[in-house]
Write a structure and sequence with these properties.
The complex is a heterodimer of chains A (about 120) and B (about 110). By secondary structure, chain A is an all-beta fold. Chain A is built from no helices and eleven strands. Chain B is mainly beta and about 110 residues long. In chain B, about 0% of the residues lie in helices and about 55% in strands. In chain B, the strands form two sheets. In chain B, strands 2, 4, 5, 9, 10 and 11 form a six-stranded mixed sheet that branches. Chain B starts with a strand and ends with a strand. Classes of the chains: A mainly beta (about 120), B mainly beta (about 110). Chains A and B meet through strand 5 and strand 10 of A and strand 4, strand 5 and strand 10 of B.
Chain lengths: ~120, ~110
């Protein structure tokens, strides 16, 4: 069983640039969630995608956007990068069904540094 | 008030000790409770998952939820140096948006 994979593992950008982070969900999973984890803090929910549509959003500005593809993989896009965007970005996948849902399983994240 | 409060530690115990990790939460609508373990430079790994109140045991790990006091606990018996990691509690009213504590850093020394 293949787990959640994220790419790239590390990324360095400068303020004002744009970035795209990628996530492949665990096999059998159809839902992807994205979290931001600042150093020494717990993950903060950005948004979730199910059936290729946003299915819930946390307190993040519109410059954070995402996509989910028919194979359930996902992208997180961040425009106009700010210094405070420096963090570990985590993708989590899970199965959402009509009668049961399952907890989220995480990838190892993309560490984004903004200079 | 944050949705989930967790003492960041650090917590340092000798090998073989019983470890108790705790969180409190504020929203009575939360009914899904999880503990994740995060090693340095890795993503969170799901350890325990419970729905509503009660206890759940898996090997050396026991998770407890007390919804009346909004208190979540994880106990680790016979702790091992390989248990050294950051432990994150998480909860939510659905399995969609999860609210995490800031994590407790645990070190088990031989």
């Amino acid at each position: 069983e293949t787990g959640v994979t994220q790419s790239p593992t590390h990324l360095i950008k400068t303020r004002g640039q744009q970035v795209t982070l990628r996530c492949s969900s665990q096999s059998g999973h159809n839902t992807v969630s994205w979290y931001q984890q600042a150093l020494g803090q717990g993950p903060q929910f950005i948004f979730q995608y199910y059936r290729e549509e946003e299915n819930g959003r946390g307190n993040f500005p519109p410059r954070f956007s995402g996509l989910q593809f028919p194979n359930y993989s996902s992208e997180l896009n961040v425009n106009a990068l700010e210094l405070d965007d420096s963090a570990l970005y985590l993708c989590a996948s899970s199965f959402t069904g009509r009668t049961s849902n399952q907890p989220q399983h995480f990838g190892d994240g993309t560490r984004l540094s903004i200079l | 008030q944050k949705e989930v409060e967790q003492d960041p530690g650090p917590l340092s115990v000798p090998e073989g000790a019983i470890v108790s990790l705790n969180c409190t939460y504020s929203n009575s609508a939360f009914q899904y409770f999880m503990w994740y373990r995060q090693y340095s430079r890795k993503g969170p790994e799901l350890l325990m998952y419970t729905y509503s109140s009660g206890n759940k045991e898996d090997g050396r790990f026991t998770a407890q939820v007390d919804k009346s006091s909004k208190y979540i606990s994880l106990f680790i018996r016979d702790s091992q140096p390989s248990d050294s990691a950051t432990y994150l509690c998480a909860t939510g009213s659905t399995l969609g948006r999860l609210y995490f504590g800031r994590g407790t850093q645990l070190t088990v020394w031989p």
